[in-house]
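Re: Re: ligand-bound prediction request (bumping)

Still looking for help on this. To restate: I need the protein modeled with magnesium ion bound, output as structure tokens. Inputs repeated here so nobody has to scroll up.
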Amino acid sequence: MATVTDENAQLEAPPPAAEPKGDVDPLETQEWLESLEAVIRTQGARRARFLLETLLARADREGVVLPSSITTPYLNTISADKQAPFPGDRELERKIKSVVRWNAMAMVVRANKHTNVGGHIATYASAATLYEIGFNHFFRGRTADQTGDIVYFQGHASPGMYARSFLEGRLSEQQLINFRQELEPGGGLSSYPHPWLMPNYWQFPTVSMGLGPIMSIYQARYNRYLADRGLKDTTDCHVWCFLGDGECDEPETLGAISLAGRDKLDNLTWVINCNLQRLDGPVRGNGKIIQELEGIFRGAGWNVIKLIWGSDWDALLDADETGALPRRMAEVVDGQYQEYVVKGGRFIREHFFNTPELKRLVAHLSDQQLHDLRRGGHDPLKVYAAYHAALAHRGHPTVILAKTIKGYGTPSEGLNTAHQVKKMQVARMSPADESLLAENDQAEQEKLKQRSALRAFRDRFSIPISDERLDKVPFYKPSDDSPEMKYLRERRQALGGFQPSRSTEFKPCPPPRPESFSKLLQGTVQGKGQSTTLAWVSLMSTLMRDPGVGKLIVPIVPDEGQTFGMPPLYNQFSIYNPLGQLYSPVDAGSLTMYRESKTGQIFQEGISEEGAMSTFIAAGTAYSTHGINTIPFYIFYSMFGFQRVGDLIWAAADSRCRGFLLGGTAGRTTLNGEGLQHEDGHSHVEALTVPTCMAYDPAYANELAVIIEDGINRMFVKGEDVFYYLTLYNESYDMPAMPEGMRDGILKGLYPLKKVEPKGAKHTVQLLGSGTILNEVLRAQQILAEKYGIGSTVFSATSYKELRRDCIETERWNRLHPDKPARKTHIETILGSRSSVPVIASSDYMRALPEQVASYLNGRLLALGTDGFGRSDTRQGLRRFFEINAEHVTVAALHALAERGDLDRAVVAKAIKDLGIDPELPAPWTR
Ligand SMILES: Cc1ncc(C[n+]2csc(CCOP(=O)(O)OP(=O)(O)O)c2C)c(N)n1
Ligand SMILES: [Mg+2]
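Reply:
Sorry for the wait, this slipped through. Here it is.
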């Protein structure tokens, strides 16, 4: 017999077991215990519970300290007598749900008949009631008057959503046939929720576990922010998130729940499908996931609704006068509950109802009835009541912990293999089928097994498909005028339209005033340097006052605003806090006062890059979700961007998110004192991997201004689905004015900045610099001219990603259009013909960044970069160490000329010596 583990026991009520140590009056103790037993015997467990709770409350008031209990008994939170009555038509809803079940299963089975595209049956099979109650009674759609609810659907349940949309007439049979075959004629359906692939349908990508849950929390808070700032009334928009119990192991899932509790987000409901299984096996075989989650969520300030037992159990609980049943329910661990699913009624009678007392309780039930005793998440009445209570609850977010069976109703229900099953095959067959099986070859056997499984599934859910047609696994759609189809349409009409649904409508915002950028375009007064980070802060304070876009700007920062010089913005525009500011800040009255306000514009997210990124996604998708073009600017330590929250950045791209990511204190040698963990020399390489990300590494404030102005126009005025990644540095130097006619070059990634032609120069080179390292390249230009009489042009390489994009597009066009005049790449246009002078590139990033365009220049590009781990030293020291400084750029240029035979190699050897370079040092990436 299974019992709770010690670990789990901590979550349960303290064991009644032994006499407390030091019992000074055993007689008195005995009297108390006898009174309790008498109450249980004569008035039942409920009365006993009431008395105990009353006693506990009184003890607490009197100062008696007791160990806190973070969980409640393993019972439904809403007792039968407190359930909101079910307003639907049970029979019609069952019919609809059964058809959706069938089609969801058929979609996966058919897709995998002749392909290996995969798909999941078991997840939706366990969650069908949880979704169907939502679709029929709760999920509001978008209308002219309402935004509709935002629902994060569990990714692996997507076949269920498609199957319902098929009944609703939104998806064709061909699309269902092409599930996971998106390139087939007639179009297909994406594996999981992908707004990029199905932009009219899915709102948010959820399938990378943990991201849907955290995004939903920040979405709910963002809805509040829009309302509090007077940008939009979002009170009618509830946020729902459906997730798996296994998914709760991802740190992102539970990592932000305290924010939802703290901000009292009662516009948020999570439904956790506790089928007790994940991919390989039980979620908590030796414990109880529902109890564990209850404790965690209660501690974080959530309203917890446990939905464990179906209605059939109510009568048993009522009949049980001794409390034996709840005790048994509490002591059995999840792994054991799974076995009951698989082994059936007889086993349940023997092993779950394991005492004479318990056996008496179920003596009137057959084995089949015992097997069919439903779990809460499969009972429409209980699910309805839970959702109803969640929406009625005020002051806390709600989590519904719904117990279900993985693969419910399929041949693999409860099996460890359920998650991966893509075929319908029974493990156990009737004796008649068994003997038939033995007579056939393997292919025929497979068919027989499938037929038998489909027949059982069809019968269980009463799908009107004949035996003859079963082999084809046909989709089924009741006739349009059938009562169930009418009901389905009526319910969705009443709720305002379809779900899931993503709006592709776009209303452009006014372009920002050009004057907002003029300060940055003018450059700084000579000798009064500025960093690109401070230039950005200054741009923000101007932009946020722009009459058109000012109020739409959403600055987001994790706990690092001081690093970026943002405190003046805190004071001017306030940090958003729904409670306002209940204290007087220590720096009150100063220009940099830490000001919090209910109408604050800035998100100061605390130390949570995941949270900040989730806000970025909520803000950067509001153009579609809410029809409002909020423009997020999220600034963070560039090291803690792509490498830390790369999957959320990928999800942002999938979500068609717009906005600006700003990698602050960028550059492996420019952020010079923070060492290996902070000095980023690779985020631009990571940015290459995200298709919709425009990545720039500007050197000057004027470049920054041009890029940001163009970005706002592209994303929020023209409506392009891209977002920007810009690296900002904290090194101060003179910022030149915007060079005439270079706008296009800045945006395309490369423009000529400065040409130096010493008298009588025999050779020239081309030098590319990015970010702060442009200054080293300019210094190299001087050395080359003054010491070696070599001419050069310095180019500012603002974006290798854009250069590369242009190269691959041009190459592809030329390859596929051999009969047309060849097009020229931007980089070739700017640098000149293929056989011309050597090109040396240096940046604060890895060599791989410039090298990606080398093949388009016939290999005449030599890249220097910061490959290896960062470390702490002076900027000069680090640039020498990584061999990206002016001296190394000079030697690289001389070497490239010598390689072509233009210079004697001895000149290079002498330069190495003269410029103080030790050629025998080990490579920086080995140190
Ligand atoms: C980040 C991430 N890791 C792993 C997976 C692979 N994966 C897909 S489903 C699954 C198990 C899901 O279990 P659970 O959350 O309990 O959902 P259920 O299907 O049981 O409702 C896993 C591990 C994933 N999708 N995302
Ligand atoms: Mg699960």
